[in-house]
């Protein structure tokens, strides 16, 4: 089973930046970041197809959040700039269960492994 460990959350003022990290035990076909605000459903933030180097960002974060990875360190990053109070949430690193060379897309419903989460709080 894939192990995912996030870090890097914290409290910032609106307009600030944070970089989240996710150390993973292995790559799978679909990697990604999700978030869940209090009282709301978990939502996808960025879907990542590692082997095809393709990403899909949710409209709410497009242009402000940037994914990157360091294969040598088995680590994914989420650079979050121009943060807004509505970005306040628990952020989760996520993966599916398929081997990394699998074909097909990465819809939000494909993700079924989660880290413990890291809290991001943005104040106005």
Q: Tell me the fraction of residues in β-strands, as a range.
A: over 45%
Gyration radius, rounded:
14 Å
The counted number of beta strands is 11
Largest sheet: 7 strands, mixed
SSE sequence, one letter per element: EEEEEEEEEEE
Mean pLDDT: 94
Number of contiguous helices: 0
**Helix-strand makeup class:** mainly beta
Cα end-to-end separation: 39 Å
What is the general shape?
globular
Low-confidence stretches: none
Summarize the amount of helix as a percent range: under 10%
Oligomerization category of the chains in this entry? single chain
Quick summary:
This protein has 124 residues and is mainly beta. It is built from no helices and 11 strands.
Present the secondary structure layout.
Blueprint: E1 4-7, E2 10-13, E3 18-24, E4 31-36, E5 43-49, E6 54-57, E7 65-70, E8 75-80, E9 89-95, E10 113-114, E11 118-123
Parallel strand pairs: 2-11
Antiparallel strand pairs: 1-3, 3-8, 4-5, 4-9, 5-6, 7-8, 9-10, 9-11
